[in-house]
Structure formats: C-alpha cells, structure tokens
C-alpha cells in the first residue's frame, strides 16, 4: 500500500491509473482510493477553515480532496477574472505603499500596492523599456513622491537584485533603490534572500485571486494593463513542467509584471503545501 498526496499527473498517476489502464489490470492489482482531509475527525474546524482561506480552488482539489489535477498546464493564473478581480480602488492615504520589483532592462517592472494584512489592492504599475534601476526609482518618485511624501514604503521583489551589478561595483540594484527612494519615502526592505519556487508563487497569487471559500482578496486597478494581460495570458511551458512559457515573441514581454507581484504575495500570503507525503509499502 502507498499513502501519498497527489502531485499532478506524476509517476503515481502513471503507475496506479494510466499504466493500469494500458495493461488491462483490474482493481485487485492497482487501485486509487481518495480520502478527503475533511473526513479526518481529528482536525479542528478552525484549521480546515484556514486551509480553505489560503488555498486556491485547484489546490483544494489536490491537497484536501485527494484529486489528481493538472496544476502546471495551460493558463497559469486560472483564478483571475477581470470582471471580478478588476476594480477602480483608489490610493488609501492611511496605509503604506508596497513597491514590488522584477529586474529586466525590457521590460523593467514594478507593481505598486497596498494591503491591510487580509486584502491586497494593486493600484499602479510601472513598465519601462531599456531602463536602469535609477530610471525606475526616479519614475516612482515622480509618480508617488508628492502624494506619499515622508510615508512608509516597503520593498519586495526578485532576490537577484541583491547581487552586485559588476565585478568592480560594490552596489546592488536594491542598494540603488534604497538610496534613491529614501530621499522621499521612509523605506523598509523586505526582500527575501532566496527566490521562492515558481509553483509556490503562482499558488499564492491564485489563492489571493480566489480561495477555496470563494473569497477574492486581491483587486487590480484597471490601469494596470500589463499585470492584467499577464494574469490572463501567461501559460505554463508545454514541455518543461513547472516553468512559465517565455518562448516566442508573443510571450517574451509576459510574466515579468506578474512575477513582481508574486514575490510579495508569496512572502506575505503564502499558500503553503506539505509536499510529497509519507509513503509506506
């Protein structure tokens, strides 16, 4: 007997179902018995509710209901609905701003958002071509310096920005960001030392867009055109499991804005999953 949580259509599905069907084996040889987490009488209701709150619908099917689902094929941000997740939510003066960075010269992407530890409002984005970090910092000061002068700004983003810019430079992208933005804002750095896995980042974003309880806890301003395009059009790579599809001219400009958002979401609102599981034979 094997006891294990599903993990997409992996080797376990191949062995227990696909190979069984191809060889014409019956249920006495190999059989899948799915058990729901909700059937466990030893789990507290509060714990189950917390799972529903933090998991996306796809994760609910796999992690709690024991179903085999394809979480790494087709559209990446399956929970996004432009008619339900897009709204003209204004800047809230009483809350800090969060700047989330993804480092590319083209496009160099930043998402600007606010949150109250439960809900996230993405209120702006910056996408520049052939840009340096100084260019992006200046654009942020130009756009937000007057309205948010002297107030708190938290910095999240790609950990790659912590690497030195060259062998002769002792500065990093985040050094430049902190130096430049501190002229106007009260800056707090919140960048992780290591990058999260792509699937963890995607799961966290999907769970904020729509969780297992049916709550949509993230709103995107309609002016965030690049982010909305990403959430609708980014797909999984057709041949490399767990990787985003960046091949071809149509996909080259995608993924970067949603990546910048994902670094913050997975850090502040992770949809943690216990991977694998105990196997006994």
Helical stretch tally = 10
| N-to-C CA distance | 5 Å
The spatial strand order of the largest sheet comes to: 5-4-1-2-3-6
Overall outline? elongated
- Tell me the helix content: 25-40%
Rg from alpha-carbon coordinates: 21 Å
- Category by helix and strand content: alpha/beta
The H/E string reads HHHHEEEHEHEHEHHH
Low-confidence stretches: 274-281
Mean pLDDT reading: 83
Strand content: 5-15%
Biggest sheet record = 6 strands, mixed
- The total of beta strands comes to 6
Q: What is the structure about, briefly put?
A:
The protein is built from 10 helices and 6 strands, in the order ααααβββαβαβαβααα. It has 281 residues and is α/β, with parallel strands linked by helices.
């Amino acid at each position: 007997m094997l006891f294990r949580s599903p993990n997409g259509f992996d080797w376990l599905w191949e062995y227990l179902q696909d190979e069984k069907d191809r060889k014409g084996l019956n249920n006495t040889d190999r059989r899948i018995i799915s058990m729901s987490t909700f059937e466990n009488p030893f789990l507290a209701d509060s714990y189950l509710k917390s799972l529903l709150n933090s998991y996306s619908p796809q994760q609910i099917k796999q992690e709690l209901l024991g179903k085999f689902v394809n979480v790494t094929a087709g559209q990446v941000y399956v929970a996004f609905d432009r008619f339900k997740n897009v709204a003209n939510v204004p800047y809230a003066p009483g809350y800090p701003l969060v700047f989330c960075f993804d480092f590319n010269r083209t496009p160099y992407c930043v998402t600007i958002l606010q949150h109250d530890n439960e809900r996230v409002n993405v209120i702006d984005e910056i996408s520049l071509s052939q840009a340096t970090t100084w260019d992006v910092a200046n654009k942020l000061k130009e756009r937000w310096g007057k309205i948010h002068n002297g107030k708190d700004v938290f910095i999240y983003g790609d950990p790659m920005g912590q690497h030195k810019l060259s062998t002769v430079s002792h500065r990093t992208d985040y050094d430049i960001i902190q130096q430049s933005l501190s002229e106007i804002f009260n800056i707090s750095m919140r960048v992780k030392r290591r990058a999260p896995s792509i699937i963890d980042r995607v799961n966290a974003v999907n769970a904020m867009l729509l969780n297992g309880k049916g709550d949509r806890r993230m709103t995107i301003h309609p002016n965030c055109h690049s982010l909305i395009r990403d959430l609708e059009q980014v797909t999984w790579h057709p041949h490399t499991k767990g990787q985003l599809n960046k091949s071809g001219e149509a996909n080259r400009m995608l993924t970067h804005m949603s990546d910048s958002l994902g670094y913050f979401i997975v850090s502040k609102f992770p949809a943690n999953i216990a991977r694998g599981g105990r196997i006994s034979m």
